[in-house]
Amino acid sequence: MQSIQPIIECVPNFSEGNDLAIINRITEAIQSVEGVKLLNVDPGKATNRTVVTFVGEPNAVIEAALRGIRKAGELIDMIKHRGEHPRMGATDVCPLIPVSGISMEETAAYARKLAQRVGEELDLPVYLYEEAQANKERSNLSVIRAGEYEGFFKKIRLPEWKPDFGPAEMDARRGATVIGARDFLVAYNVNLNTTSVRRANAIAFDVREAGRVKKINNKAALDEQGKPIVIPGSLRNVKAIGWFIEEYGIAQISMNLTNIGVTPVHVAFDEVCNKAAARGIRVTGSELVGLIPLQAMLDAGKYFLRKQQRSAGVSEKELIRIAIKSMGLDELGKFKPEERIIEYLLYSAEGAKLASLSLADFTDLTASESPAPGGGSVAACLGALGAALGTMVANLSAHKKGWDERWQEFSDWAEKGQQFKSELLKLVDEDTRAFNRIITALSMPKSSQEEKAARSNAIQEATHHAIEVPFRVMESAFGSMEMIRTMAVAGNPNSVSDAGVAALCARSAVMGAYLNVQINAKDYEDPEFVKTTLQKGKQIEEQACIKEKEILEIVHEKIRG
Q1: Which of 53, 62, 41, 37 is nearest to 338 (CA)?
Q2: What positions carry a catalytic annotation?
């Protein structure tokens, strides 16, 4: 099955916080790359530094970062720069952060790719840090930046401080830069039913990784070396303090979750609830500061449903709703997922025009004189409906009276069904986009030999994509049939006919998508690829028909009793 779209965040820090004209020209360079979305620009006058946040697919982010670093080097003169924040270059630091569909290891590889391009294409000294740096003796940003801009003219010549990429000579105007990969940081506050900062801090010390210094008779207890003994907190990769928010008249636990893979938001919330309750204090809700990855919200929704022993195989929208309500994210103000979840900011509803239509509008559009949406989108829609029906049976089974001990079994199947459904819904729109790519390629100019060659290449690339999309529909629709079969065999017997309809939809989706694979393959000029794809497609079609027949036999037998 197709994995989640890989998205990374980039947070470059530029050594200019006062001249908005310069800042705007840098962000314009970043935004000139298709596939990235600028999320935030935060200039600081005292620090004379601007923190920019943008997200996108990895290669687009790399290109946008390169353009931003290039423009900063053209516009910022480090000889004249003064500011309170430590710095060593026009682009002081440029971290990449995995958001979704990509591992830290893969993100670190992209950081090294960016660093190499900056060093070679911009002729700028570059140091790697955090997860992108293999040498852990020089992976800490503060250690690398020690000496700052003024001290680097000597430091850079030391053998142990030779840059990872670029010249081993300080650029007087642009300085040097640090590029790396680090974890996503979530700023998150938990609301308490108290005004006491002292009590809030006590809870913060209970949970934060750094914990608190052990005290005996109000004095710090020391170890054999004379150092204070520290009692660690219960949550790893969490920084926390207590404070009072006058605007709301409450105390909060303010946390930075520096690795939500280790301590997710929902785990931090529950742990604060437990520690607060132990001190006679109640958590009333929480507050997200800034943005959060989609997966973090989905994981939270599933976590709270599982605590109730209810199926977690519900829609993305419902999981987010459960997460918001369970953590009280809307206590202090309305929580709008479209404004707070990174993926929703990056991919607006414009990217899902067909899948977001009403059933009547989708049907009317299909019946119009427009050639798209066509059979490929309808096949994907059929597959999504089949997966949805199978998922419905799984959820009904998870909540069936007398089957309480089997909720986890059916919840697992429902989650798989939701994954197939989501993928197929995406392919409803992707098939039409693939068709439009071919139309765009066909309309390209063809006056000169160069134009003809470019047009031909574009047509072939678009055609390749137009073959791949319905093939993915085949794979996903067929993949859902095992879940559908299991529901016919072991699911709620009152819904066995629904499993049968689901099988019919899935098989029809496979066969319909295969027709699109075949017709698009006729225009593709790679006979080996075409042959292999058609053979695989035929096998999937045959297997889907066999599976459908098997499921329908089970269904008919159960209906007959």
Answers
A1: 37
A2: 85, 431
